[in-house]
Amino acid sequence: MANDRRIKSAVDLISNFPDVILQHILCFIPIELAITTSRLSRRWRHVWCEIPSLSFNADTLTAASVNETLTRYTAPNTKSFHLTITPYPENIPYIDRLIKFAVSHNVENLSLDFSSHYYVKLPDFFCNSSSVKQLNIDIGFSHMIVPEYCTMSWTSLQKLSLSCGRLSDESMANILSGCPVLENLTLHNCVELKVLDLSKSLRLRILDVKCTMTDWGSTQIVAPHIHRLRLLSSQSSSPTLVNVDSLTEAKLEILFSVKRYFTFKADFFQTVVLKMLEKLQNAEKLTFGGNHFFLKILSLVEIRGVPFPMFKVKLALTLDTKISRYTIVWKDCYKTLLI
């Protein structure tokens, strides 16, 4: 009885918040959960209809629920839109409708996760958007198809992240040509790229390249305008830096595998590292990471008496690593590397 009286006398402080605060809170949960709040009371019935950020997961969607959601949504603009698609036996007919809905509502931050699909073809209407400022497309190891007959035009795009196993030079060039104000580019395992030419991306300042698959070793990076570079790669898949003349800050992480030390000779690793350092002569801040790989190779270079590339400015060098029990393995490999 006492508990019942407390409940009846309790004040609903949350419902007294302004709509803008309630909508901000609802942005942190998937849209289907946000919609269920409309059952709480008359006060909550239409709160979700104007939340600035939408998050959809195809696992929980049906054509009927999508139609109802988009019909009841009344906000004129959408700040953020996230769509996740997990494995489905057939094509999902309303996916294009959701993307078109986001574009038509002037979305600024768009995230598309198709990582479970083998082929992903960008819809034609998606090739043109003047509102998107930040775009993240993750299709895992799948093949992203950019329509050849479409001229890309993402005139407001400032930050682009692409994660895809199959992206051709032609598709990448098409994308870059339509992003005149691009400032930040992230690429993850785009293994079909042979030449990443960023010479025409005049405003690009930050490049983040992650290449942990073994068949990305032949990619050449031409990025004369970037100021910051982060390169994460395996030993055998490090891209070749052709032109990074404006670079002032770089973080290089090469993942170390003991087994691969016996696959490649020491000269191979020494050449890779020294060529990379030679292209970083203008850097003011340089960070080495990746479980001791650089430390091992640079120590080897020092022992052999091989001259280091000369840097043009005073360099701040940081070794971002950790000491673990596996470090002792280096002692066993050292003699092999010197041969």
From TrEMBL:
List where this protein forms a coiled coil: none
What is one Pfam family matched by this protein? LRR_At5g56370
Question: Taking every annotated instance into account, which residue ranges of this chain make up the domain F-box/LRR-repeat protein 15/At3g58940/PEG3-like LRR?
Answer: 96-255
Gene3D superfamilies with a match to the protein in the record: Ribonuclease Inhibitor
- Alphabetical list of InterPro entries matching this protein: F-box-like_dom_sf (IPR036047), F-box_AtFBL13-like (IPR053781), F-box_dom (IPR001810), F-box_plant (IPR044997), LRR_dom_sf (IPR032675), LRR_FXL15/At3g58940/PEG3-like (IPR055411)
Tell me where in this chain the F-box domain is found: 14-50
Q: What is this protein called?
A: Uncharacterized protein
Q: Name the source organism.
A: Brassica oleracea (Wild cabbage)
